[in-house]
Amino acid sequence: DAKTTQPNSMESNEEEPVHLPCNHSTISGTDYIHWYRQLPSQGPEYVIHGLTSNVNNRMASLAIAEDRKSSTLILHRATLRDAAVYYCILRAVDSGGGADGLTFGKGTHLIIQP
Amino acid sequence: DTGVSQNPRHKITKRGQNVTFRCDPISEHNRLYWYRQTLGQGPEFLTYFQNEAQLEKSRLLSDRFSAERPKGSFSTLEIQRTEQGDSAMYLCASSLLGSSLGYTFGSGTRLTVV
Questions:
Q1: Chain segment A20-77, per-residue pLDDT in tens
Q2: Exposure class string for B71-105: b at 16+ Cβ within 10 A, else e
Q3: End-to-end alpha-carbon separation of chain B, Å?
Q4: Contacts of residue A87 in chain B, CB cutoff 8 Å?
Q5: Least packed by Cβ within 10 Å: which of A4, A58, A60, B9?
Q6: In chain B, what residues touch A46 (CB-CB under 8 Å)?
Q7: Which residues pair with B78 in a beta bridge?
Q8: Using CA atoms, how far apart are residues A111 and B37, in angstroms rounded to an integer?
Q9: CA A100 distance to own-chain centroid
């Protein structure tokens, strides 16, 4: 998997939007951008993914740069329950039977202040 | 189906002993993954199965580690002759081949080798 770069930590206030950046300058044309988050004492949780276009779901939005070398996870209104480590991961298109192990970095530790 | 289930949640063992962990994936998921996570680090990929076939193994999976998924349903991860360096959280995840969604992780088994 190609490598991603994220800030070690970010801090935000409750009920404000949060923009979590991720750089992936070596992304290939067949790599999806996935985001997971991990709350304390839990396994990672899938948040969102995209290929080229911006994506929205009930948890977050994903904004992908036009050249796909960076992306931003957007939490529209952070709550205390959003405090977690957020991982940005590249995952190759699944061709069936090939390599499918995700490469997690250290992620961004998001701190939410009340 | 309540998600990916891992047992036990915690295991303390003496160095040199063998341990076995179990993972029950989401029933319709045909892929199952094992990861290891140490404190302050992101999860590290160990191995994955598609149905009962083990399709990928990481270099982290030493000869003392073995994983099985005999009937394509639950999986076991065994560590023989445990060492203190094996102390970590062992995470299991499952997914459905062809689905655009991400993995579903369990809550993990925390292993402490004393």
A1: 999 999 998 888 999 999 999 899 999 999 999 999 999 999 999 999 999 999 999 9
A2: eeebbebebeebeeebbbbbbbbbbeeeeeebbbb
A3: 35
A4: 42
A5: A58
A6: 101-104
A7: B20, B66
A8: 21
A9: 18
